[in-house]
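Putative metalloendopeptidase (Lactococcus lactis subsp. lactis), 946 aa
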Amino acid sequence: MSNILFLDKMQQVIKSYDSNEFMECVQTKEITTNASELMNDTLSASLPFDETIKDASYIAVNDTKEQEFSLYRILTTKDEDNLLSSEAINFAVDELDNFIIKDIRPKNRSFSYVINQLLSDSGCDWVLGVCEPIKTVSSTFYYTSMREALKALQELGSEFTFSIEITGNKITKKIINCYNQIGKITNKRFEYGEEVLKIVHQQDRTNIVTALIGRGKGEEVGDGYGRRLEFSDVEWKKSNGKPLDKPKGQNWIEYPEMTKEYGIPSNGKMLPRKTVVVFDDVEDASELLQKTYDQLAYYCRPLVQFNTEILGSDSIGNTVSIHRGERNYHYQTRVFKVVTDHVNGRVQASLGDNLSGNSLNRQLSQVQSNISDLDSNKMTWYDSTEIGKYQDDIMRGAGANGGSIYMVNGLEAGVSQSRETYEQVFMDGPKIQDSQYFMIQNNAGISFKQCKKGQWTTIKDVHNGASTTAWTLDGTFNASFIAAGILAGVLIQGVVVKSIGSNSFFQSVLSNGAFSIEQYKETNNVDYTKPDWQKDVHGGKVGEFIGTYDGNTKKANGSALINYPGYILSINQDSGNGSSTPVFQVPSDSTFDKPKFKLFGDGTLQGDINIKGNFYVNGVKIDTNGGGNSGGGGGWNGKYPPEVTSDRDKRYWQIWAMAIGAGFSKQAAAALLGNAQGESDANPTADEGGGRPGFGYGVWQWTDSSGASSGRVYMINLMTRAGVTDDPDTITAQFKLLMWHAPNGQWIATSSYPYSWTQFMTLTDINTAAQAFVSNFERPLNSHPERSTWAQEWYDKFVNLEIPSGGSYIAPISSPITVSSEFGWRTSPITGAQEFHNGIDLVNGNPNTPILASADGTVVSAADPGYFDWYGNWTVIKHADGMYTGYAHQSRVDVAVGQNVKQGQQIGLMGTTGPSTGEHCHFQFMDEFYPSSNAHFHNARDYINF
């Protein structure tokens, strides 16, 4: 009984069965007649349907050792009549085809060394088990699969089997075993015609030979060989235990019984059917005779295939004897196929000659010529030998008198069994081992090869060496071989012209009228028949100089230098020593949405300069006040939730509301409150030194570290630089100063809290945010863990409270209202640059909807061309609480300066005047008529619930 396992696609065991649970389980192993193919090994299995294994990928069979299995990959699975049937093939052949050997070239190395080297180079997880062959290997394995490599080794005289070991539920070892010959030589003898030996097929072949002329290694002639070794001087006598009689002076060996049966009739007697067999590696006459006899024993008899059921499942490859008494001969043959039925235990073995498939035409692999009878062709043995030498010299040609040319046949090249010329080799020396450069002509065209002198010693070394085709038979010329000289002409016309830069870091390419700098990409052979062949030529683009055209007229209108993201475009000044320094540069972080450039060195600009955006000098923003700005301080409408009643809580609420309005997360806002409590209990007039220099002042205790001025004076000086014009002793002014001071030098990221000010504003962990403010903004001598506790307390107190709306303002257009662009920083829809959007854009589906006054007030600007021109037709209303509301881009203004208006009164119509991308109402709140900085704009959402 056999143990059979099913495994999933990860080769993990799913379920185990005994063979008696199967309806069918037939394992077929066959040694192929062609040594260049590995053993055929298949499995057919059927058992009652089982849901757990219906998606299995592998089947493992064990009928021998405890842990060693044959593993099969399932090719097809059928679920019919409540039976689950699978067809599978030995997984090793399939798996090994996917491991690639890059370049292994053993020379006179043992089989075990070569196989282990191949396994290592291919990254294969297989290991070598048994390795019997002791012969050496000299070959080349260049970008070939592990499967093909084993096939090549098998052709050198070996055979392979494959198995796995399973421990627990997984494969723990994959084993390749290498034998001189699978199986063992047994004493088992079958009599031809006995009942246990069933004749499956018999073929009396027409190419039977009854005598063989053996020829061994020849003497050297140039780089080839001339007269070959013979066994004429060796004598065999059956009386001395030899299988046949062969007298001295006779250069062939004959099976007289076979000549009597199959010979050539001539003058009342049968002449032997002769042919010649050549063994290039045999240098001893006695060995030559024995090898010639071995071949004759096979090729002098009819081909017969037998079946028997008395051999075991492990008999594959075993050698047995077949005795044919009526013809007085016997021979040894192998079990070439074993079919094992694991359900009923029956084993059917096929032995003898494999006459299935293409093996019917199998012929003597070592036969170099097929001379049926030397006598009938009126040719003496001496004549045939001299002709053979002459042919050898013609085929080779290379040598002291032959020039450096070698005519190579298919046998020598290892591509066929034919002696017909396959290719012609030209070399730069008189012999292969004295040559370094080779030119090859064959049916692929003309190619060139190169090696170190002495590296290649045989013509097969040359054939297997790496080559580059220079000229194919269809006329295609490889331009890589143009290494020097001048191409005389006035035009090179094509799709791509490529020039390689120094050290192959980059390449310059002319393609489709554009000149580009690209990352270097090695290009060898290009298949121009592929529609995407240019991918094999182009590398990643770094920069490009292109022509531009007018999309309407379809005519060229200019040119452009293109920089690609992640790279630098630069105009440099040469240093005179091979290096350079930039004068103008587009940096690598420049993008389409946010383009950047840098200028280096002194320079002069003549003419007016129109800057659309912010302008900074040494980090200080230059605006209408000539100073920096706070970047916005968050809006607050002066209103408190009903839960906030004490003066202390109101101070903290104002900071909370302004922080939320400025874009802080609620956790980061709480961090400001925890630190404000630790510094001053959120008191904007807290003065720790009573006006003395070197002490802190205000909510966050601004301190002149130089000790030159008091905290309040130092704070007011900072406010002047920041453009903060509010009362300095208020939370509003000090919050605006915080928003300017932090990103303008006070906030310094530490290794413990490596956050920028902008990143701090978005932190969502209260402890992290509180301690980041302590370390990066306050930077005290001692730590303050208590501020995290206070921040958590303020967070818990305010987190669920709603920020009250202004209450006295209404939306400037009727419902339904959509906010098409929010208040704050955005990418300009006009310029594409980053800009501070100081209002909120509103639409309602009616492009000419009436614009309404948001609250009672007095019109202080109406379509005034002297106001900022980017508002188009613009109306500003001043309200009783000191706030101003603005309404931009109107198509019509219906009010005049000085006119008093009521809440909800129509003041104009929606439009798209001024810089605008479509009809909308740009609506904004200001605490100054001409705001001096972004801090004086307020978010409309703080006053109206949209």
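Residues 818-942 form a domain with the Glucose Permease (Domain IIA) fold (CATH 2.70.70.10). Confidence is low (pLDDT under 50) at residues 221-225, 357-391, 397-402, 616-632. ok done for today
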